[in-house]
Amino acid sequence: METISPHVSVSLIKSLSSLLVSKMPIDKAEWEGYFDESGHLVKSRDFISSNILDRGLDPAVRSEAWKFLTGYYSWRSSHDERLTIDSMRRKSYEALCNMYDKIQPLLETEHRDFMQVRSFINSDLQRLYLRDAQGYAIVDKKQLEKILLLSYVCNTEAEYQQGFHEMLLLFQLLVEKEHEVYWLFQFFLQKTEHSCVVNIGVGKNLIMLKAVIAFMDPIFAKHLEGKSRVVQSLFPWFCLFFQQVFKSFDDVWRLWEVFLMGMPCRNFQVIVAYTMLQSVRDQILRENMGGDDILMVSHNRGLLPSGCCLVP
């Protein structure tokens, strides 16, 4: 099993703290300067990744840059090749939708799991409420439901998890076209499957988190051990890749793009979780908190992205 060496944990924690420090992000003019006239990158992937890690992306750049980070586009593609790729993605998505429409009646009558998942999705979406500054609803719930169901049908290993609708929402806000939303979400799940997919990576992350806590903070580790399965109760952080923890969508996008680059280390999400625990460590010890209380106090420091309200 792959692990994080505790000896490098301190420097990685410092890397995390620097992520959300305000620096001038890569803006549209600089991003366009990374390409030649044919649309090929003239800067290396390592150069771009290092700059994204250090400075982040301007919102005007993020929608295109994420297509490279997720694998939607090849880093070696030209402008014309990207047009072809986008057309191929759109046609593939339309074919998947047609397939789904044909088998949906069979799924509804023969597969109890499908009906249960659809019920979970509908319940989650009913609580999702997002409006712009003028008060207009900006969430296309029908599109979210369609993509979540299609994703469930097409991915046997990536079971639907409560909160996936909020993850998908960030992709809906990131790009305009439905097929782009679908494929970016799929590529993100593939890139992070060893971290956030329950059947594959969440258990591994929890084991590594427990080991890091034991090495870095034995007193805290002893408290958590006495509360029984506290670390295991933190699985939502990994399942949803911390989407519910940070105060703004920009902070979530900023963190996710670092995960997508695999920097500064492959299992950086474990250090993120450890740092989050440390931010409320003293309160946890002082108030003798257990698992659910730890989740609550961590989230209360910035549970929902600004502008997002889950209506009970």
UniProtKB/TrEMBL annotation:
Ranges for domain Rab-GAP TBC: 56-263
GO BP: sperm axoneme assembly; sperm mitochondrial sheath assembly
Gene Ontology cellular component annotations, sorted alphabetically: acrosomal vesicle; sperm midpiece
InterPro entries linked to this entry: Rab-GAP-TBC_dom, Rab-GAP_TBC_sf
Example of a GO MF term: actin binding
Transcription listed as a keyword: no
Domain of life from the UniProt record: Eukaryota
Pfam assignment, any one: RabGAP-TBC
Assigned keywords, A-Z: GTPase activation
Full protein name: TBC1 domain family member 21
Organism per entry: Terrapene triunguis
Gene: TBC1D21
